[in-house]
Design goal:
alpha/beta; about 50% helix; lipid metabolism; ATP binding
């Protein structure tokens, strides 16, 4: 499926198109053309680096939502072994907007959970565009409890616009399901590592994000509300979303400076949507590092440090 380049990516795409044309000019080895190709490739890398080094918060929102970014099942396939997906909340139904199950990370048994969006219209309808219903959060809660019972570390991957705000979801206890997840995660005595891979939208993201370590990809976002929703409330006009994105401090860089997250994971030049393999390598290195550190903690220390981490968010001292 061809994806339209984002507005600020157009110069990159134009240069890449020229590169393709140069490469197709001749099949024979031509020193002059080889030199031009090498110079153009170098120029493309410089333009990419410059564009992505200077993204505004509003532009980062677009990158975080890019449909070619890796999703949870992509990370599971690349970083984990022997994944077995578990379904259902044992109360109502299975919610495809959240996937989870048992697996192995670096040879060690674990539980992995994350939001899952779709790649096309059919998949997005099935996955509800990555917006979980209460049963999705209750499925996650079931997996949290299982991990705690069998002493398995938990890895969560966050990428959602937010919890589904439909009438049915509210009738089935959306707010209670999210609150219950926060309650249960706060009390777990196993390591929890969370990665914000795309959008981290409000309580719908936080419901699986109370990690001992919270990591963010370089161009992902994490906020209490979407810029469009914020603009609609504050200015009664969604067109103010760029201004809202600035005010929300939703970028990984903002959140690291505020101590909301623990580490920013570098994305390959040009963003995760352009280089899945490079992204997987960077994420795996970060997960291995933090997992190694957390394995040194006792169950009580895991509980206490997680508690203190979230208690300290938003605390200001004169």
């Amino acid at each position: 499926m061809a994806i339209q380049p984002l507005e600020f990516e157009v110069p990159i795409y134009e240069l890449e198109k020229k590169l393709e044309e140069l490469k197709s000019i001749s099949e024979v080895v031509d020193k002059d053309i080889e030199d031009k190709i090498a110079k153009l490739e170098e120029r493309i890398q410089k333009v990419k680096a410059n564009v992505y080094r200077n993204l505004t918060p509003a532009q980062k929102v677009l990158v975080a939502r890019h449909p070619n970014r890796p999703y949870t099942l992509d990370y599971i396939a690349a970083l984990f072994e022997d994944f077995v997906e578990l379904h259902g909340d044992r109360l109502y139904m299975d919610d495809s907007a959240i996937v989870g199950g048992i697996a192995k990370f670096d040879g060690e048994p674990c539980v992995v959970i994350g939001h899952q969006k779709g790649r096309n219209t059919k998949e997005n309808i099935m996955r509800n565009f990555g917006m979980p219903n209460p049963e999705g959060y209750r499925k996650a809660q079931r997996l949290f409890k299982m991990a705690d019972k069998f002493n398995r570390p938990i890895f969560t991957f966050v990428d959602t616009p937010g919890a589904y705000p439909g009438i049915g979801a509210e009738e089935r206890g959306q707010a209670e399901a999210i609150a219950r997840n926060l309650f249960e995660m706060a009390g777990l005595k196993v390591p929890i590592i969370t990665v914000i891979t795309g959008e981290g939208g409000s309580g719908g993201a936080l419901a699986i994000a109370m990690g001992n370590r919270v990591l963010m990809l370089e161009h992902s976002i994490y906020a209490v509300i979407s810029p469009e929703g914020c603009a609609s409330i504050l200015w009664k006009d969604a067109s103010y979303s760029k201004r809202a994105a600035e005010a929300l401090k939703l970028t990984a860089q903002d959140l690291k400076s505020l101590n909301v997250i623990d580490e920013i994971i570098k994305e390959p030049v040009g963003g995760a949507h352009r280089d899945h393999e490079g992204t997987f390598n960077n994420v795996k290195k970060a997960l291995k590092k933090h997992f190694k550190e957390l394995k040194q903690y006792s169950p009580d220390e895991l509980f206490e440090t997680r508690y203190q981490k979230f208690r300290n968010i938003g605390v200001f001292a004169e």
